[in-house]
Structure formats: C-alpha cells, structure tokens
Specification:
Elements: E1 5-11, H1 18-27, E2 34-39, H2 46-52, E3 64-67, H3 76-88, E4 96-100, H4 107-113, E5 123-133, H5 134-138, H6 146-155, H7 165-175, E6 178-182, H8 189-201, E7 208-211, H9 219-222, E8 265-273, H10 278-292, E9 296-301, E10 308-315, E11 318-326, E12 334-342, H11 347-355
Parallel strand pairs: 1-4, 1-5, 2-3, 2-4, 5-6, 6-7
Antiparallel strand pairs: 8-12, 9-10, 9-12, 10-11
C-alpha cells in the first residue's frame, strides 16, 4: 500500500497570520510540491489570489483549491470530502496538503473527517497548527479585532455553530500539535516568553509552542510532524460538542441563530486607476481606516513604474503590504480593494478619502 499523503491543518482567528505563514512556507518549500485547500467565503477570494500569487513552481495555481460555501467544519460532507477526493485522484498527487481553515472553524470535526472511508486510506493529518495573534492574546483578547471576527461570522450563511470566541479559542488550543505565537515582535521578550509559558501550560504534553513574527517558520519545523492526529482524537478534548456526527451522516441540521447579525455588516469593492506613490497611499489607507472604523481591508494595487503587484492586507488599524508578483500582460494595472465594515459605512466618503 502506498504511503499516505500528509496533510497539515492550519487554524486560528481572523488576522492571526495564517495566510502569511502559508505564503512564507511556499516561498521556502525546497522543492516539496504542496497543494492548498483554503476555506474562504465572500464575494472576492483575495486570500486565494494572494497565495496563487506566490509564483512558486512547487505550488501552481491549479494546486490552490478554495472552499467558499462557508465554514469548513460545517461543510465537511458537501465540500471538504469531495475536494479531497478530487485532489487525491490526480495523476500527480501532491507531496503535502495544507488546509487553511476559516477563523471560525472548530478544528476537531475537520480532523475527525480524515477517518471517513473515502479518504482514510490515502491521507493522514501530519499535524494541527494553531496560529495566535500574540499581541491580542497578551492583551486579553482572542483576536486583534473582535468586530472583524463577528463580521466574518455574519457573512457565513452555512455556519451551524454559534460558539463563544473563548470556547472556540480553547478548542483551537486543545486540538493543536503546534501553537505558533505570531507577531511576537510586538510584545518584547518578557511578555512573549510569558505568553508562551501560559499557552504551554494549557496544552497537551508534547505540543510545541513557538514564537515567530510575519509567519517566518522553517518548513521542516512546520511540516513533517508525523502526528496522525485522526488517531488521537480522544486527547483533543472539545469544549464545544455540536459536531459529533457519525461518519455516514451527511445531514447537517443548521441552526441560524447567528443570522440576526447579517444586516449589521457590509462590504464593497473599491476600484481606481494605478497610483504613483505607494508610501503615500498606504498612509491614506491607514488614515481612512481610522476615520471610518473599517474592520478589514485587503486587495491589490498597481504602482506606476513598478512591474510587481502590491498586495495590501489590513485588520483593524494594522496595515501590511508587500510586492508579490509581476502583473501579467492581460491584467489591468489598477487598484482593487475589498472593504468590510459595520452597516451604514459612508461609502462615498471612504471612496473620496482613498482617492484623496
């Protein structure tokens, strides 16, 4: 029997740094062919485009598969299992599969899905990696911007668990084989080490708690853990038990108590011509976010005279940017940003400010 393909599950709240961690992994894959399954939903798959823009031969655009119908732990039967089957059926299957969950996913049901007969003989969970925003957790929060997490919750019509963030965080920690304390550079050594010690004390024996910033974790540390987590579910105790389905139970009884929040948030896509000064535009974005309480902003920007595409991601007031790949010949050189905020955003004022 052929060896099972290892799969790494990467979980953590919105803004913790999952996509950045994966991007760094792809840039340093050392020839390992990696396939990605990304759990993103919404009108514009920016996270998927960011990872497709890695331009690395070890992860081509065809190797990035997006699950956009809702939170991955709520759509195991309908989305995840068929996607895995399609990936495993390829003539040239990947060396490793990496799954980025939505920030609201309960990791245990996803690990449990690897025992489904359709995939259990062909793939195994190499390890579960939980990424935490070190600064936010140190400040007594679970995410840098709780309102942005609530906005993500409101956008998912298929979400069938209304789990308090504290319980969801505990589940992510309880299921982890490795905890990555990201953004540790914002804490200082004393606070960062104290947080590592605290998370270590709350974890199972053998769980690694690692400090990093900008998701810069060596690939040979992140991958190749060899845990077979699906065989170890009993140790990964759940605070929230909503998802104990039998393997042959494809019926999902969705409760929609969360739908009252759907009208509380809105998003829109902003477009304009290419810009001339990247630094000035980033300052404009920072000021616009503060002035209009924008929860999340992300997208791509063309800078005059620059062949590379500028990627921008902002969670709350924190704005990150980097050039990811050259524009293609048939790609418009323009600005495209997705803006998420609470209902009642002054769209005209925001657009005017960004055009500033």
């Amino acid at each position: 029997m052929a060896a099972k393909i290892p799969a790494t599950i990467i979980t953590g709240f919105l803004g913790a740094g999952k996509t950045t961690l994966i991007q760094h992994m792809l840039a340093n894959a050392n020839g390992k062919r990696i396939a990605l399954i990304i759990n993103e939903f919404g009108d514009l798959g920016v996270d998927g485009d960011i990872l497709k823009g890695c331009g690395d031969e070890t992860c081509t655009e065809d190797d990035v598969m997006e699950l956009s119908n809702g939170c991955i732990c709520c759509t195991v039967a309908d989305d995840f299992i068929p996607t895995m089957e399609k990936l495993l059926a390829r003539d040239n299957p990947p060396d490793h599969i990496v799954i980025e969950t939505s920030g609201l996913a309960l990791p245990q049901p996803l690990v449990r899905a690897f025992n489904w007969p359709e995939i259990s003989t062909r793939v195994t969970v190499d390890g579960v990696v939980t990424v935490v925003d070190g600064k936010a957790v140190s400040d007594g929060q679970f995410a840098h911007n709780i309102a942005a997490v609530d906005a993500q919750r409101a956008q998912d019509e298929n979400l069938d668990h209304e789990t308090p963030l504290s319980e969801l965080f505990d589940d992510q920690i309880a299921c982890a084989d490795m905890i990555v304390v990201n953004k540790s550079d914002l804490l200082g050594d004393t606070a960062a080490n104290a947080l590592v010690d605290d998370l270590q004390s709350k974890s199972r024996d053998g769980v690694q708690v690692i400090k990093t910033s900008m998701g810069k974790l060596p690939v040979d540390v992140l991958l190749g853990q060899g845990i077979s987590a699906e065989d170890d579910l009993g140790a990964r105790h759940e605070v929230h038990h909503h998802h104990h389905h039998d393997d042959d139970d494809d019926d999902h009884h969705h409760d929609h108590e969360h739908e009252h929040g759907h009208d509380d948030f809105e998003n829109f896509v902003f477009k304009m011509d290419e810009i001339t000064d990247a630094t000035a535009f980033l300052d404009t974005i920072t000021n616009t976010i503060k002035a209009h309480n924008i929860l999340r902003l992300k997208g791509f920007v063309a800078v005059k005279g620059k062949p590379m595409r500028l990627t921008i991601q902002a969670v709350g007031p924190r704005v990150d940017s980097y050039f990811d790949r050259p524009f293609t010949t048939d790609e418009p050189r323009s600005v495209t940003l997705v803006i998420i905020g609470q209902a009642g955003m002054d769209r005209l004022a925001i657009e005017s400010a960004l055009r500033g």
